[in-house]
Amino acid sequence: MATRKRRAEIASAGSPADVDDIDLTSAPVPADPDEHICKIPDSQRLFISLTGKAFERALLSKLDWFSYLRVITLALTGYRPDAIRLIGETIMQPRGLTGLAQDTLETSIPEFRSIFTTLATDTSYPILIHCTQGKDRTGIIILLALLLAGVRMDAVADDYARSELELVPEFEERMREIRVLGLGEEYTRCPPDYVPDMIGFLERRYGGVRGYLERIGIDAGMQDLIRQKLLVQG
């Protein structure tokens, strides 16, 4: 019986048909990848996937041995949607939005480093941060940025909760998309405990947001540059 560590090694190494190339992101892929992106004149766009290979491998490593073999079998025999649904039902749904956000912080280190390096670059401003829905992946980035700026937890939580109201018109469409992934209605929401749980996680694991950013390669000087950009000088 393979250990979790061994399954992680197998997932990292890949499979005969590159099984860990399964797209596990919760966002649907549009026919035209640019169809939801505003064309802003004289702007530069930086595409960063917070749920890339490292995140996918981390999810695969959480599968028990039997489920892992099922995923491989389904993927290799042309049943990729069923493989994705199996991962959604057995790993993503139990982890919940908060658990997956924590997994993202721990696995997508190069991506977060790139994002905050951009935020620390003077010529990047003004800057717009957005994902498909503007709630989950965007939410993690904004959470870190607001905490770095010293914003109170209740204000951060209020800001995050406002995203749910903005997505109400798309609720039914979003539900159809996430059911295909084996996920429940809570994935369309902004859980009230999300922000305090994420702050608690950062405090326990890294001593806070500054400790996390230091860990991923954003030093104190870069953090101060970001703070200067985000804070209004009185």
TrEMBL record:
Tyrosine specific protein phosphatases domain: which residues?
A: 106-175
What sections of the sequence does the record tag as coiled-coil? none
Under the GO molecular function aspect, what terms does this record hold?
phosphoprotein phosphatase activity
Annotated region Disordered: where? 1-24
The cross-references to InterPro entries, in alphabetical order and at most eight, read: Prot-tyrosine_phosphatase-like, Tyr/Ser_Pase_IphP-type, Tyr_Pase_AS, Tyr_Pase_dom
Q: Which PANTHER family match?
A: PROTEIN PHOSPHATASE, PUTATIVE (AFU_ORTHOLOGUE AFUA_6G06650)-RELATED, TYROSINE-PROTEIN PHOSPHATASE
The identity of this protein, by name, is Tyrosine-protein phosphatase
**Source organism per UniProt:** Penicillium subrubescens
The uppermost taxa in this organism's lineage are:
Eukaryota, Fungi, Dikarya, Ascomycota, Pezizomycotina
